[in-house]
Amino acid sequence: MSERYDNRFLDILGDFNFEVLENSKYSIYALSKNLKFIYFNPAWFDFADKNGFDKVASKNMILGTPFLKSIKGVRLRLYFYNNYKKVLKTGKAWHHDYECSSKTEFRFFHQTAYPLKNQEGILVIHTEMFKLPMDNMNREAFKAIEQRYLNADGQIIQCSNCRHTQRADKPEHWDWVPDWVEKLPFNHKLDICPTCEHLYL
Ligand SMILES: [Zn+2]
After folding, report:
1. Rounded to the nearest whole angstrom, what is the distance from the C-alpha of residue 196 to the centroid of ligand 1?
2. Separation CA 147–CA 70 (nearest Å)
3. What is the CATH number of domain 7-134?
């Protein structure tokens, strides 16, 4: 495993307790002023492991790598960029709720981005609010049939948040396609569906 923090991080920790962050069961990372990774706690790596981040994604989880490289989809990149920059500018914490489900489990998280000392960086803590077996969610599962979802641009659109897939002939329908949650189709594009829109304003 590569290093998890650099000295810049310890310098701007302020009132946060390093031991507490290290031992937390929640995934935590910190970013520098220019939004590059300067810290990951051990739980972050466990989370990445368990959630099967692919090799490319894991490669971007390295100190000094721009945070935005780890985010898929233009929409989400812009959203996080704007809000993290706002934390740095205003010195006020920012909160964001999101879903991060797997094929078999419904999971809902809350992230808080705290300004670090002198607004020199931000600390981002992801707390799990709840999880339920997907079977309890009453989500109708659809088969991964390309013809049904491939749009005129040759792309399959999936919601970054709830991971539902947009139908090509009825774009207002977004279906739960478990196989594409487990593994994104090759020609996918990530967006935010209307149901999740309110979480990304
Ligand atoms: Zn959605």
Report:
1. 4
2. 30
3. 3.30.450.20
